Amino acid sequence: MSDIIQLLPDSIANQIAAGEVVQRPASAVKELLENAIDAGANKIQLIVKDAGKALIQVIDNGSGMSVTDARMCFERHATSKVRKAEDLFAIRTMGFRGEAMASIAAIAQVEMKTRKHDEELGTIIQIEGSAVLNQEPAATAEGTSISVKNLFYNTPARRNFLKSNPAEMRHIIDEFQRVALAHPAIAFSLHHDGVEIYRLPSSVLKQRIVHLFGNNYNERLIPVEEETSIINLKGYIGKPEYAKKTRGEQFFFVNNRFIKDAYLNHAVNKAYEELLADDHFPLYVLFIDIDPANIDVNVHPTKTEIKYLDEKSIYAILHSAVKRSLGRFNISPTIDFDQETGFSSMITHKAPEEIIPPSISFNPDFNPFAEDKPAVARESAYASFPKTYSGGRGNIQPSTKNWGSLYEIANHSPAEQSALDLPGQEPEHQFSPVQKQLMQLHNRYIISQIKSGLMLIDQQAAHERILYERFTLHLEDRKGASQQSLFPQTVTLSPNDYELAKSLLDDIKSLGFEVREFGKNTLVIEGIPVDLGGSNINETQLFEHLIEGFKNSQQELKLDKRDALARSMARNSAIKNGTVLGQEEMNTLIEQLFACKTPNFSISGKPVIQTIGLAELDKKFDK
């Protein structure tokens, strides 16, 4: 029997490894930026075209490479950062596995130009699918320039799995932000299709955060700093009032390497306990400096997972440091009697013997039912009650006459009642077109009498259901009507949100928005949906909430793009609890609700309508 096990060719082995290291253009961007940092560069340029599918180019002014190193860096497991096994537990560099360049060269057309600072000539090398096409001396700038063209050109199945350009560009911006945050002393720039997205000068951490996320972040940051024998912690956290409903502004760095760690994230969220709602996430950019011997970074090829020797202690330190920073800057309440001014009114300078305790006086002969009580006083006791009874003093007529005939439900017992039908009508006609007398409870619920008892409707959930079905229909038929704004509004988004908005622009217009691109990361809103003409929120806030809600729906529920957009629009545009409604508004709301396909449930799956039968009411009164 012949042998069947054989070694794979290097080209195939590199393509297999590339599946772990390079999942999308953003993965290649991360590896190339980290190599530039390890080379000691203080200025790094990133240029991408077609969201990285056509070109990814990283130019740095680092140490450069010799002729031999330029060729060796494309070999598997070739690295300058590890010499022996013990070095794996003393890693301070970004890269160390020696897989990235070989993996990228296996699935792309790569050209590298490099020159060391003390040499007159550099080297240019061209590789395609792991095969070296050309290597020769060349006059080039100090440092290294690597161009990755036509990513996944030889693995079309992998290329087909890539998302749209705006989606892939958002991932590239995410990786760029993480690297730029970790190294504020390095100047970075990012260009996409000839447009400058970022130009970040060398700065300190706080300035780098502001440059990346916007000037309004300057007032949102709270410093955190803690030094212990286990770790040194520093960075910034966000004030609770600026927390968002979507994740994306949470950054952990261990020895300047970005990591994802749900356990440490829980420590930060726990420190915000009672300061934030459960569905809000605070901003934080935290750096943990720890002895490399106490961690293992060689867990996954992406190097975003780390194992710790003493993670419980790290959790406790992180939680207490964040909690103390929140208290120190008066974000969370304190019980410091030396500083708290709320107790000053309770302190008196009188001697104890001068303080007279309060006394209680009462009339022991008082009888509220005495006949000699003035009639006027007895009358005033009833003055505040609504005169809704018949007979008695003044023969006051009832104001709720025929209240029981507001709704009629035919052929339904209380147990079977789940919809409202009028006598002689088909079941699908669930609400009478005649205006009804309704009542609003605490500006949250609409109350109405029905034949078998009473009905409660959650006004916000009902309006969300109405708008959701309406916007879904607009997205399907592309006929959302727009109301032109008298004064067009501009909205400036973060680069990430701008790319997201560009990918949604056609669907956003289908809802009824009139939006167009207007310069760098800016859109002009010239009209809003007719359905929202009476909304109190301005166009800019509405659009920002729409994008934020869309991200939240996609993250939490993994919905398709249009459904997530309709949900976000409905939630942000619906009337809120506490809104006062008139009779006509309540009648219109209920009519539109019962015209929906699913009137009984909200877009989150919770009930919109609750009915309480007469039998249940009688039971509560022991009848």
UniProtKB/TrEMBL annotation:
GO biological process: mismatch repair
UniProt xrefs under CDD domains: HATPase_MutL-MLH-PMS-like, MutL_Trans
Domain MutL C-terminal dimerisation, chain residue ranges per copy: 437-581
Keyword Hydrolase applies: no
Domain DNA mismatch repair protein S5 positions: 209-327
Chain segments annotated as coiled-coil in the UniProt record: none
Gene Ontology MF term list: ATP binding; ATP hydrolysis activity; ATP-dependent DNA damage sensor activity; mismatched DNA binding
InterPro entries in the record: DNA_mismatch_repair_MutL, DNA_mismatch_S5_2-like, HATPase_C_sf, MutL/Mlh/PMS, MutL/Mlh/Pms-like, MutL_C, MutL_C_dimsub, MutL_C_regsub
Entry superkingdom: Bacteria
GO cellular component: mismatch repair complex
Keywords: DNA damage, DNA repair
PANTHER family: DNA MISMATCH REPAIR PROTEIN MLH, PMS, MUTL (PTHR10073), DNA MISMATCH REPAIR PROTEIN MLH1 (PTHR10073:SF12)
HAMAP family referenced in this protein's UniProt entry, alphabetically: DNA_mis_repair
Family label: Belongs to the DNA mismatch repair MutL/HexB family.
Function, in words: This protein is involved in the repair of mismatches in DNA. It is required for dam-dependent methyl-directed DNA mismatch repair. May act as a 'molecular matchmaker', a protein that promotes the formation of a stable complex between two or more DNA-binding proteins in an ATP-dependent manner without itself being part of a final effector complex.
Name under which the protein is recorded: DNA mismatch repair protein MutL
Source species: Pedobacter africanus
